[in-house]
Write a structure and sequence with these properties.
Order of helices and strands: HEEHEHEHEEEEEEHEHEHEEH
Radius of gyration: 18 Å
Distance between the termini: 52 Å
Structural class: alpha+beta
């Protein structure tokens, strides 16, 4: 299998590289495509690791990581450093390594703009042969995701979100998608007949069950990784609550795609989920992802 190109050979996009313009809708869409290409190529490294076999290791917090996590993150970090040299990056494995060395992730609040990287979301399923793992990359400005990309290497599905959301199917070894390869995606209104709810395959908890019990759920589907955000973004489900522990890099890219598709991600009181909480170790609070923002007023009251 071919490896992704050297980061210096990555197709440049000067306008998207200027974080001072990330508030512009057209630039956000170009940035999302750029991030989509980065995660797609990083996905090729994960597939190579699957083909040759990979080691599984433990962090001090007990969670797992693999050679594929490390190699994909290294490629993403190298590429971001070349094309976005003035933008800080918070990446899962890098942050874990710094924590184990007694260091902090660094102060990203002064930059106002930064990236969140999860090189392999769903590592636990990945190590047991699961296929729903993803590569996640998001751009954050003032605590909000302005662009993001989620790639599922096993299926070749790629979702991006800037001012608008789109999806395509592309392996890491095919040419870069053209305009004709993308299809616009959008969330749906909450169906009167009942909601389709998504729940984590491995991380259920009592609070999530209590929340879902209060909703008019007609179908419940279990899934892994940030794919859950993308399923809602393309109008195939309605709600994904998560009251258990997650990290900012777990959710930011899927959050960006969902918001771009017309959905929203809020806390139990209905306030938007925000990013950049370095003092909290970049740990998320409870959240609910909705396809129909109107549902927040109906079901998310303090």
């Amino acid at each position: 299998m071919p490896t992704p190109p050297d980061p210096r050979d990555f197709p440049p996009d000067g306008a998207a590289g200027d974080h001072r313009r990330w508030h512009e809708p057209a630039i956000r869409d170009r940035l999302a495509e750029h991030l989509g290409e980065i995660v797609r190529l990083a996905g090729g490294l994960i597939l190579e690791a699957v083909a040759r076999g990979f080691g599984v290791y433990r962090k001090t917090d007990g969670s797992s990581y693999t050679d594929a996590d490390v190699e994909a993150e290294r490629y993403i970090l190298d590429t971001l450093a070349v094309h976005f040299p003035n933008v800080s990056v918070i990446a899962e494995e890098q942050t874990a390594a710094r924590a184990e060395a007694g260091e902090t992730a660094g102060d990203i609040t002064a930059d106002r703009a930064f990236f969140l990287v999860d090189p392999l979301d769903g590592t636990r399923d990945f190590t047991t042969g699961g296929l729903e793992y993803t590569v996640n990359l998001a751009a954050i400005v003032n605590g909000m995701p302005v662009a993001g990309a989620v790639y599922a290497p096993a299926s070749g599905l790629l979702w991006i979100g800037g001012a608008h959301a789109a999806a395509t199917k592309r392996t890491p070894y095919e040419p870069r998608p053209t305009v004709a390869d993308w299809r616009t995606i959008h969330t749906r209104k909450a169906p009167p007949a009942g909601l389709t709810a998504l729940a984590s395959r491995r991380h259920g908890d009592e609070h999530t069950e209590e929340f879902l019990a209060r909703l008019p759920v007609c179908e419940r589907v279990s899934a892994s990784s940030s794919v859950k955000f993308c399923v809602i973004a393309q109008g195939e489900a309605d709600v994904y609550p998560r009251f258990g522990r997650t990290m900012e890099w777990d959710t930011a890219a899927g959050d960006a795609v969902l918001r771009a598709a017309g959905g929203t991600v809020v806390d139990p009181a209905g306030a938007p989920l925000t990013y950049g909480r370095a003092r909290d170790g970049h740990v998320n609070g409870p959240f609910i992802a909705w396809g129909d923002p109107a549902a927040v007023g109906a079901f998310c009251r303090p």
